Structures are given as C-alpha cells and as structure tokens.
Amino acid sequence: MNPESGAERGAAGPGAGTPAHLPAALPLLPDLRLAALWVPPAPLGPAALPQSDGAAPAGDWLDVVPLPGGRLALAVGDLVGPEPRPGAVTGLRTVLRQALYTASSLTAALEQVERAASADEALHGASLTIVVVGPDGRLEHARGAHPPALVSGPGGIAPVPGQAYGPLGVGAAPPVPETAHLAPGETLLLYSDDVVEGRGRGVGQGLRPAPDVPEDDPAALCALLAARAPRGGVAVLAAHRPLVPVRPLHLVLPVDPFALSPLRESVTRWLEAAGVAPRTVVAAPMVVSELAANVIQHAYPEGATGEIRVDVALTVAGLRISVADDGTWRTPEAEGPDGIPDPADERSGFGLAVVRDLCDELVVEPGPQGTTVTALLAVDRPVAVGETPRPGPAAAPEAFTVHTGDAGVLYVQGDVDLPAVTALRAALLAAAAGGVRCVLDLTGTTLFASAGVRLLHQLDPGTDLQVVAPPGSVARPVLELTGLGHLLSDRAESA
C-alpha cells in the first residue's frame, strides 16, 4: 500500500483530521487543481453567537465525485435544523453519489436526490449547488435554495448565471441543470450559504480577490471566501483550470543500469512540477527505478540492445506508472517462502515485491512482443480543516421582532434565523388567512438565514405573498440567490 494515501489524509490541517461528513481527500488531476476548506462553527455558549440557522457543525458539507469520461462532480450544500440527525449529511452525500453513478443524466440524478430528501424528514429543506466539470471545461450546473457557484478570473469574481430552485424535500421542483464554460486560467468556487448570510453584506460585496491572492491558487481563494463567515460553520470548494495542464511524462531509455539515476531525477522533477505531495515524490521514482531495473535484469540477454519505455501520468484513479519493453522475461531461479522472490538472488525479480509494497495496484501484462508493467499510486490532497473561530463579546444576535403595521403589512426587524421562524410562520399564516394578500417587509432584517428561506418555500403555493426587500437590504440577495426572487414586490409590480 502506498504510504501516501493514509498519511496525506491524516494531514488535513489545523483540525487534525477530516471530519466524517467530508470527503477523505481530493483527487490530484492534470487539468484541474482542487482545494477545499471546512471551518467548524464557533462553539455555542454565553459569549458565543449562535449559528445563523442553528444547524449542527455537520450541517455544511461538500463532496467531489469522479464520473466516467473524465468528468468531475463538485457539490456543496447545507442541512438546516436545530439538531440534524447524526449521519444525515453522510446519508445525503451517499444518495447523491449513488444517483450520479447510476442515473443517465444530471437531471435524473437530481430527481433521485429529491425523492430521497422527500422521504427523509432530516433532509427536508436541504440546499445544494452542484457542478459537473468536463475535461474541456464544460460546466453542467444546478442549485436548489443555495447561492450560485462563482467563477474567478482576470476580470474578477462573478456568479455563474442560472435559475435558482427551491430546497430539497419540501415539494419544490427539482433543480434543472444548465450549462456554462470554465476557461483556462479561471477558478470555479462553490461555498456554503453562510458566506452570503452575514449582516449587512450582499453577495456582490467584498468578492474581489486581494492583490496578494494569486488567481491560480485555489486554496487561497477558499480562504478568501471562508473569511466572509467569521463565525465559521462554512465549507468552500475550489477548482482551478490551469492555463497549461500537466502533460504525461514519456521517456525512452537504453537497457543500461547507468540510465536509472537520470530516470529517477526526471521523474522527481516532473512530480514536483505537477504538485504531487512530498511522500509520493519519494515513492514514485523508486517504483519507476525498480521496474526499469527489473527490465534490465530479466527482459534482455546480457549485452543485448533494446529500449525501456516509461510513461507517468496523473489520472482520476491516481498516479499511473507504466514501464514497457520488447524483450522476453526470464523466469527467476529462486523463490523464498510463500512464493516471494529471494532477495539474495540477483535474478530473482525481487524488485516487483518492493514495488508491490510501495504502490496500491500492480499489473504485469506479458506478451510475445514484450511486457508492460503498470503501477498505480493513490495521490490526493486533503480537505483543509480550519481552526474553530473563537467567540467574541460582540457576537450578540440582533433581536427579532415582527409586528403588523398599516394595511396589514408585516414588518420584520433583526435576525431571521431558526429561533425566529416559529413566530414568523405564525404571523404569516395569520396575515394570509382567508386568502388575502400578505406583504412581508424585510427591509429591517439584519440576517436572513437558510431557516427563513425554507419557511418561505414551504408556504402553501396558493398563498398570495409579496416581499419587500429593497436593493441594498440584507435579505434581497439571499432571496434572489435561493429561488425566491419572484416574491419581491418591485418585481411583481414591473411584471
């Protein structure tokens, strides 16, 4: 087994390990550089500010799912509720993965996820943004009650255009995918809704990368977005499409033991340029060298001429190393216990035993025209786990109030978060009784969290509701980003 796999997954950052509701690691790819960051929420307590939606620390989640044809599915979502059932997020990720593997299209996969969410109360109101990235940069994306993915490039950061749909499991129509394109040099960003729920901040504010943030550094962009949620409880996923992808390494060597040292040096330089972690940089050159030495010892008679072809490439499955020859392998003359070659015999082929210990998979394909040996090493990057924010004395929530004004308008002040939803629901139902038009004025809100989004989506479709949230208000961008923009009164008047 490649020591890189377990070692790198354990080095997830300040959090000392990747939580179970996040992927164990991110694949290392030639044409897409990935980074992910999860920051735990600030602890609840006398001096701590409650989370915006009251969700447990595992409410925000992300996932990366390799798909056939060189495609990669990226997803970020949120589970709302005071105490999400243990394992609910893991269950939702499992449902999504199975749907992506088995469905004929992203549309069909999202329909499967919607059915599963409808049948599980713990998933009611869950939000989701998903993007499937093709090898040519083609994006297929959809979102339900969640902010849109962003694209960062030379011109700044902008949302991926697309329709917003309602949350999962509450009777809203499943999200319908749309298409876009990620150009070389651009970075795709997916993030928790906490990033846009902050007080007094719209989605378009503060989203320009700082001058010292490299545009081609997905990890730095993750940190930039996560900083917009100072109370933590945020997940960010970034995928950078490099201007020049990592090209496979192809070398042709003579059958000469003195060629092994330059071979190791060439492979090491290629791995470092590809951004492979240090432990693999040590293991992979040794694997290549052992396989090439095995060819020199066993494939060609002493003094014969020939060539050794070496290919190294990054794939979704890992680092693939292939060593091929045109000779005929000689049978080892001695074996040790259990069929393992005897290291005391120079012709024993013990190099293959060493390679088996260093890699995750080894395939030997002999043939009349030569032999090809392929080794696979798992290479990946960890999901970074940030430090839990420290609660501060200024982290006091704005008091929530709702009262009826002139003409029956409901005026809301303060934070619309999970504790406020019960009172707001009662006020809305009372105001809309008898089928009369209800006007909800959110101008004075200082926070409009996902619990409020779910409430508005769960209202009876026959409810005649208009929402006042003028440009510049906290609630307006959240409504627009989560499929509730049609409720805005100024839009209804201009329609």
TrEMBL record:
Keywords: Hydrolase
Location of the STAS domain: 409-495
Pfam families membership: HATPase_c_2, SpoIIE, STAS_2
InterPro entries: Bact_Sigma-Reg (IPR052016), HATPase_C_sf (IPR036890), HATPase_dom (IPR003594), MlaB-like_STAS (IPR058548), PPM-type-like_dom_sf (IPR036457), PPM-type_phosphatase-like_dom (IPR001932), STAS_dom (IPR002645), STAS_dom_sf (IPR036513)
CDD domains from the UniProt entry: HATPase_RsbW-like, STAS_anti-anti-sigma_factors
SUPFAM superfamilies: ATPase domain of HSP90 chaperone/DNA topoisomerase II/histidine kinase, SpoIIaa-like
Entries under Gene3D superfamilies matching the protein: Histidine kinase-like ATPase, C-terminal domain, PPM-type phosphatase domain, STAS domain
SMART domains: PP2C_SIG
Protein name listed in UniProt: STAS domain-containing protein
